[in-house]
Amino acid sequence: MGFDALFRIIGESLFPSRLKKGLAENSLKAGLDRPPYLLFGILFLAGFISVIFVDLWFVSNVDLSSVLGLSYKASLLLQPFSIFVITFSYLAVYFFIVLSAIMLYFDYSAFQRTRRMEALLPDFLKSLSENLKGGTTLEQALWNSIKPEFGDLAKEMQLVVKRISLGEDTSSALMSFANKYDSAEIKRTFSIIAESLESGSNLTPIIDMIAEELVDTFQLKKDIATTNLSYVIFIVVIVVFVAPFLFALSTQFLIILQSFLQKMSSANLSSLSSTQSSGIFQLFKGLTEAKEPTMTPEQFVNLSYAVLSLVSLFSSFIISQIKDGNLKSGIKYVPAFLASSLILFTILVKVLSKFFSALI
């Protein structure tokens, strides 16, 4: 038995049984022939190995007697329970993050796969119509229309044809494929074909009409995306350029203000003792008594990174909603937005720091 088979067995054995059905369905939607139990096995083993190092670090670096104010004997008695809590908490968080990331990947892969099939659907329907015009049955026309250039759609049609050849009703096989993916275009197309097939209608003009409507629908979506391009550009400029610049400028203002107040608080105002009642003295007295900002520049920089990350995340989904009409496609914009805004902010902090250093 090789390591691949061993890890696959471990992954399949440790994966929760109640989630296996959903995992299998999501794997098929993502274009995988079977669930990636090999990957799960490797990740499970990595989780158990990493928790050992976490426990060793906890035992060697955390002194429970000083942290909790307990005696040495009491801390020794409490240590096994503490290790159990640390182990359980770490594994719970680790597996939650791993499973969430993998399911998110499956969901996004299925979404991208659906979009690719939607784009190929009009050409596939035209090919299907041409085969029907040649006098073939729907089953034979489906098989003849399966071509390599149709990619994922061709693979799905192969499964449909296989199910029909095994005795399943044609309408049922078509609707099983249509309901498999979250696509209004695919569901509407094959539900119309299935209903027309059951009613005995001539499929050729119906399929031609559906193909033309799909082309018009996709073109309309492109026109809408082009119309909203100005909003997309505005959001990109704000997130990538304006927001990092304002946060970097605010950081320098905080540094200058903190330095100014420190110098004023240490200034010697004894020379103004003769003019204590004057407005100038009251002004300087107020400045020297002013409190320094409660947030340090380092804390503000960390806050800026967090805020810019959130702004980039939400802006990606807003742009995807405007441009593509859905939120899921915004995942592909997140890395670019995060990297651009955070890197520019880091550069601007250093550049502005040198520019304003003369004022400090």
Instruction: Find the structural class using helix and strand composition.
Output: mainly alpha
Q: Give the total of domains.
A: 3
Order of helices and strands: HHHHHHHHHHHHHH
Radius of gyration: 32 Å
Task: Tally the helices.
Answer: 14
What form results from the Cα inertia axes?
flat
Q: What is the average of the pLDDT values?
A: 79
Q: Between the first and last Cα atoms, what is the distance in angstroms?
A: 69 Å
Describe this structure in words.
It is built from 14 helices and no strands. It is mainly alpha-helical and 360 residues long. It folds into three domains: 111 residues, no CATH class; 108 residues, Receptor-associated Protein, CATH 1.20.81; 131 residues, no CATH class. It is flat, with a radius of gyration of 32 Å.
Write the layout of secondary structure elements.
Elements: H1 3-14, H2 20-29, H3 37-61, H4 64-68, H5 72-133, H6 138-144, H7 151-165, H8 170-180, H9 184-199, H10 203-227, H11 229-265, H12 279-289, H13 297-324, H14 334-356
Helix pairs in contact: 1-3, 2-5, 3-5, 5-6, 5-10, 7-8, 8-9, 9-10, 11-12, 11-13, 11-14, 13-14
Search tags:
single chain; 14 helices; 80% helix; mainly alpha; 3 domains; Receptor-associated Protein; 360 residues; flat
How would you briefly describe this protein structure?
The chain is built from 14 helices and no strands. It is mainly α.
